[in-house]
């Protein structure tokens, strides 16, 4: 590992989201390990389960106050059009509900609040999460469409200097990759949220949850990795 990679790793792990994506990787890798070895090696399976639970609870503790980031997101990037601004309000409102009630879910699971509240808090949190993700996904698809149109218009220009044209195209394509990563993460997290709202054999299967969690974690890892 060269010095540049080490420096980027330090910067990545200094971010709240960087730590979250790393611990999320631990959480869902251990979930898959538990499922894989449960029948063959119960002792290892139990250790993996404990790692999964500890990772999940630590992520919830680390996200304390995270619901306030929705206000900041709306203030800093409300959207370039009325439609995108409206979608941003809905998406961030859902995310704020998710993170706010996630606090109570964490407190009920560690026994500070009545453990019987956990199921209700989980449902409300997951519902807000799903609501937000749907509008984040729609917003990203609209932005991707606008990016493709801008790229076509830019490519058709003949009088624009080559250097500026190349740089503009590079920015559009870089933004497209980031938005595709966001869509992948949000769709994956939507599967996880639906498993809480309306349990079903597909979304609640360990492999579905494990793969969805890792897709979300690694897409987020890519988006937060220092350029």
Automatic annotation (TrEMBL):
Keywords: Membrane, Peroxisome, Peroxisome biogenesis. It is a multi-pass membrane protein. Signal peptide: none annotated. InterPro entries: PEX11. Pfam families: PEX11. GO terms for biological process: peroxisome fission; regulation of peroxisome size. It is found in: Peroxisome membrane. It comes from the Eukaryota. One of its GO terms (molecular function) is identical protein binding. One of its GO terms (cellular component) is peroxisomal membrane. Belongs to the peroxin-11 family. Involved in peroxisomal proliferation. Promotes peroxisomal duplication, aggregation or elongation without fission. Homooligomer. Interacts with ARC5 and FIS1B on peroxisomes. This is Peroxisomal membrane protein 11B. It comes from Prunus persica.
